[in-house]
Amino acid sequence: MEDPEIKGKKKRGRPGKQTQTSNKKPRKSPTDKTLSMTRGRGKANGVAQQNGNGGEPVTLFEVVKLGKSAMQSVVDEWIEAYKQDRDLALLDLINFFIQCSGCKGTVRIEMFRNMQNAEIIRKMTEEFDEDSGDYPLTMPGPMWKKFRYNFCEFIGVLIRQCQYSIIYDEYMMDTVISLLTGLSDSQVRAFRHTSTLAAMKLMTALVNVALNLSIHQDNTQRQYEAERNKIAGKRANEKLELLLQKRKELQENQDEIENMMNSIFKGIFVHRYRDAIAEIRAICIEEIGVWMKMYSDAFLNDSYLKYVGWTLHDRQGEVRLKCLKALQNLYTNRELFPKLELFTNRFKDRIVSMTLDKEYDVAVEAIRLVTLILQGSEDALSNEDCENVYHLVYSAHRPVAVAAGEFLHRKLFSRHDPQAEEALAKRRGRSSPNGNLIRMLVLFFLESELHEHAAYLVDSLWESSQELLKDWECMTELLLEEPVQGEEIVLSDRQESALIELTVCTIRQAAEAHPPVGRGTGKRVLTAKERKTQIDDKNKLTEHFIMALPMLLSKYQADAEKVANLLQIPQFFDLDVYSAGRMEKHLDALLKQIRLVVEKHIETDVLEACSKTYSILCSEEYTIMNRVDIARSQLIDEMTDRFAHSVEELLQEGEEADDDDIYNVLSTLKRLTAFHNAHDLTRWDLFGNCYRLLKAGIEQGSMPEQIAVQALQCSHYSILWQLVKITEGVPSKDDLLALRRVVKSFLAVCQQCLSNVNTPVKEQAFMLLCDLLMIFSHQLITGGREGLQPLVFNPDGTLQNELLNFVLDHVFIDQDDENQSMEGDEEDEANKIEALHKRRNLLAAFCKLIIYDIVDMPAAADIFKHYMKYYNDYGDIIKETLSKTRQTDKILCAKTLILSLQQLFNELLQDQGPNLDRTSSHVSGIKELARRFALTFGLDQIKTREAVATLHKDGIEFAFKYQNARGSEFPPINLAFLEVLSEFSSKLIRQDKKTVHSYLEKFMSESMSERREDVWLPLISYRNSLLTGGDEDHMSVTSGSSSKTGSVRSKKGRPPLHKKRIEGELALDEEESSVEGSWMMRNDTLQTPSALQTPQLTSTVLRENRPAEHMPDPDSEPGSENDYVHNPQIQMSWLGQQKMEEVNRKDRTSMNYIKSRSNQGVRQTVRGLMEDDAEPIFEDVMMSSRGQLEDMNEEFEDTMVIDLPPSRNRRERAELRPDFFDSAAMIEDESVRLVSISAF
After folding, report:
1. CA 685 to CA 382: how far, in whole Å?
2. Which residue stretches of 936-1015 are H helix?
């Protein structure tokens, strides 16, 4: 603390150096201390600098950073030093700010006395560590986080301890403010950031001092007024003079504090609140919010509020967030609302619009601020403003939705009269007074017109309105309440449906205690308190709805929608309550109502809800299982007998069956199918009667489509339950053969149904065929289930063709065609989306068969050729199929791609004849499709090398397959296909381009190479695409690095490559000779697998692992030529055959030329090949993509994941100074320097 004797005294001017008393040991200056510590000093910018003997830290920076001493004692020691020698103490403080900025330099006493602040700052700028852009305020880790806190605390304690005298001496504060102002105007980010934080905390401390002075002034004024108002005899004149003197001193101190604050505000805040660095702007806004709340009389006015209002438009979410939090602190105090009225009117629209901010944290705080504004003044927000917030309760981001729910709660549920509610409840006989509030919630839900999002609405209100949402007694009373004569109906039919839906959602939320699907990242672990609340809520709702649910079902059993929702409630019960609470009679009542519902309804949703309820109640872990099982068996027995009887009558009457017979079969079959989905009904043998219905329908051709669809589905369930029984036990051979016969007969029926005249029957048969072929495929015997081999079915060629034709006829159709097929009925948007969803499911089911090698891969050619035409509808499915098939077999996938292009080309020839118009849109469409296919091969040309070469081989053979009937002088009929094939030439590496060109020459006569007519242009362009890239292609064998990579990567300052890698690449040309010789060892024919391997569902890394014997030599680069010399699979390739022939023709002089290259040329080539292969270059890809973003996605999807380099740190405000010590700026400067060097 300061000496009380000097309290209130002022020292004017800047005295010279004070003489030391003889009895005191001369104190070393900070400069001397620093010089004495240079030996043994630790690392600067982050590690405490200690003396050589490992003693305690001696500078303010070290003390504050370590934080071992109480900050008040540190400040008191500095004050004592200041009393002894102001210059040396201030020098300590100046060096403290310099070192806190991460600067290595130290201000010496002579610099302090003889140099201006600008010169000192310029000198310190030269002392920064250029190797790092970090400084204490930006360094990560808990130590530096604590340092920031200590730094701010030190400044606050310093002003608090000096507030009675030292800050008024016109020396310390002038020096500190002048220094901080100069540092805050520096181009060095570290100086600006640190000094701005220091200045803002200094300002906050001064505001606190000014507030105290204002309070003292008010107290002194009151004392003076009280003394002056006394009668003359009791008035103390001396006390009046003292009070006047004290008031005068306080006023002078107040004026000086105001001058200091004005200096900081105008010299630092006004410039830095719009700094280029978002963190600096955030500091300014955060502190001005503190000032306005702390000293509202002085700062809470439009002169200061405007800065916060302007910054609400800041481009960085961090700054906008600070603005909103600063305003929240102001709006929390209702006494400040009158002062905020003008600001609210001016910036309310902006605040409301920020509830839709792209940064979710900002949106949440904006909603909370709007809620505070609503609490302070309901008139401040218009209905439109409120509606903008209302719809956010349906947001997928839970914090935003919860904040909007709080706003909705304040707006709708906080303005009611409890007494009036209780009176209304008594009059209507209700036990809860919340009836009107629940009715308001229902009305809001209906007006929002988002009925499928009831769970989202409940979750949004769960934290703010939980007591209301758990009032299930009130909800039940509203639903069961009968209208009173003479009064309006409590709830309409639509409102009753909405209330039931909301009730079910509240039950689910309470029982599961986690947000609905789509909100949150998944189920989190509940705390002990949350777990207890969940158990209590579950018991409460179970006890209530065990009695109430049968009554609700009884009242609404005729309404399918209401019943389907109500039947979801039992799945959230604690079923032990039935037996523990002796409530079996309520269970019987529930089972009775469910049975009535089953007998009354045939809607699929209702029947499935009943089936699921029986399944839950029949759980073996509960004692009520036997009671429920008996009721279920009785119901199934009755339905089965009725079904068998009605089937007999229908089959006997045949074509003479009336509508009643058809309805009896259909209604019973629907009920049994719904139950068969969740229950094992195999002992009732439903498959037999269903199969009879299907066979009769096929033979007679008059079976109603709904009966056929249900019979197919029920038979499917029966087969699956039989398979479950077999897989769970030890099946006998007879059981396997019996099931095989059933499956075989059912597959035959489904295959026959594909030609049914009714589209729903065909679609159902197709989906079931695909599912059963997938289930009973070769994967059935994996995992140690070889005994199930008799159940494996492989579709023959006829079935595969029928499935493919069905896809082509029912999936790849235009919307207009579909509308015509539906007898001209106009579909609304929802029906169109539903139809598209159905077609996507059909396509996905067939594509799965291709991916898992159940249907031959060439069948995918008919799918791939529709990629461009139906890209918007099925592009994602086709692209995923292409990706998976390539993982299975790259070569066969490539042959399938070229086959799809050949099919399109043949279709075009049939339409236009042999004389194709190569400029037509149809030809351009085929070329565009080929370009898209080429992009899917990715950047790693080595991985796709054999596949691309095979594709070119098949394309060349197709182009020359048919000669022109008019003679050899005319081009082959398919020659124009080479123009399509040229789209894949860029995917060939240099060596393979030569090989493919040699193969092309085999089909060309001498006259063809001399032709220049237009009809021969496809051949000319294809040859050029193979020849022009031969010398320019410097593609490395490692993931596609280009020669441009070196100059680009060198900008990053990466370390030099390992010597072994360089030496390995220097021998690249010598390796080429051995590689070309190795092609001679390869077979003459292209080997393709006879059957595709099923892709395992593992990660890419696991899938691409190879045994140890196939690992490349550690000294060679991944993907080098040696991999292909020693890889037997690649040796057995068509490229080997072509290379063998090329080697026989190769002239020896070319090898000598390669070996005689200068070392410098080789080094430059290798540098272009090898430098930093981790990131491929994008220029070629971007040029070929023609600006289409989806092409880039296709390019990079299959072979590698590419991380784009970070973009340059653009300046946020052009008028501000550049940040010379920003890390991004340092990289930019370094890159410019390296580019200039590389130019030489």
Report:
1. 66
2. 945-959, 977-981, 990-1003, 1006-1010
Identity of the amino acid at 285: I
Any alpha helices (H) in 1067-1147, and if so which ranges?
Answer: 1068-1078, 1100-1103, 1121-1125, 1128-1131, 1134-1145
For the residues of 1145-1209, what is the DSSP string, one character each? H--HHHHHHHHTS-HHHHHHHHHHHHTTTTS---HHHHHHHTT-HHHHHHHHHTT----PPPPP-
- Identify whether the C-beta of residue 1218 lies closer than 8 Å to the C-beta of residue 187: yes
Question: Where does residue 60 rank: exposed (0-12), middle (13-18), buried (19+ CB within 10 A)?
Answer: buried
pLDDT at 1144: 53
DSSP state of 527: P
Count of domains in the chain?
Answer: 2
C-alpha distances in Å from residue 420, one per residue of 174, 176, 425, 608, 909: 66, 65, 9, 44, 83
In a domain, 1116, yes or no: no
Q: For the chain, give me the number of helices (H) and strands (E)?
A: 61, 0
Confidence grade of residue 351 (pLDDT, cut at 50, 70, 90): very high
CB 804 within 8 A of CB 859: yes
Q: Last residue of a domain, which of 997, 1027, 1057?
A: 1027
Domain boundary among 970, 1003, 1027: 1027
In a domain, 161, yes or no: yes
Alpha helices in 391-448 (DSSP H): 398-408, 418-428, 435-448
Residues 6+ apart with CB under 8 A from 714: 669, 672, 673, 676, 686, 687, 690
Tell me the C-alpha to C-alpha distance, in Å, between residue 973 and each of 843, 910, 924.
Answer: 34, 12, 18
**Cβ neighbour number for residue 705 with a 10 Å cutoff:** 16
Q: Residue 546 in contact with residue 583, Cβ under 8 Å?
A: yes
Enclosing domain of residue 958: 889-1027
Q: What is the length of the chain?
A: 1240
Q: How far is CA 63 from CA 56, 77, 80, 142, 802, in A?
A: 9, 12, 16, 16, 83
Determine, yes or no, domain membership for 977.
yes
**pLDDT tier, 40 (very low <50, low <70, confident <90, very high otherwise):** very low
Q: Whole-angstrom Cα distance, residue 150 to residue 143?
A: 10
Tell me how far apart the alpha carbons of residues 608 and 1081 are, in angstroms, rounded to a whole number. Answer: 65
CA nearest neighbour of 425 among 417, 1034, 1146: 417
Residue type, position 518, single letter: G
Q: Which residues contact 607 (CB under 8 A, 6 or more apart)?
A: 598, 601, 670, 671, 674, 675
The mean pLDDT of the chain is 78
The residue among 634 and 10 whose pLDDT is bigger is: 634
Q: Give the H or E element holding residue 363.
A: helix 360-376
Separation between Cα atoms, residue 825 and residue 1048, nearest integer Å: 61
Contacts 24+ apart (CB under 8 A), 1234-1239: 1234/1050, 1234/1051, 1234/1053, 1235/1047, 1235/1051, 1238/1047, 1238/1050
CA distance 288 to 307: 9
Task: Please say whether the beta carbons of 79 and 159 come within 8 A.
Answer: no
Measuring CA to CA, how many Å separate 900 from each of 809, 877, 897, 1086, 1221? 17, 16, 5, 20, 57
Q: Are 294 and 208 in contact (CB under 8 A)?
A: yes
Provide the CB-side half-sphere exposure for 310 (13 A, CA). Answer: 12
pLDDT in tens, 149-201: 999 999 999 999 998 889 998 899 999 999 999 999 999 999 999 999 999 99
Burial class (CB in 10 A: 0-12, 13-18, 19+), 66: middle
Q: Are 33 and 59 spatial neighbours (Cβ–Cβ below 8 Å)?
A: yes
The structure's pTM equals 0.73
Residue 578 C-beta-side C-alpha neighbours within 13 Å: 20
The answer to the question of residue 1178 being in a domain is no
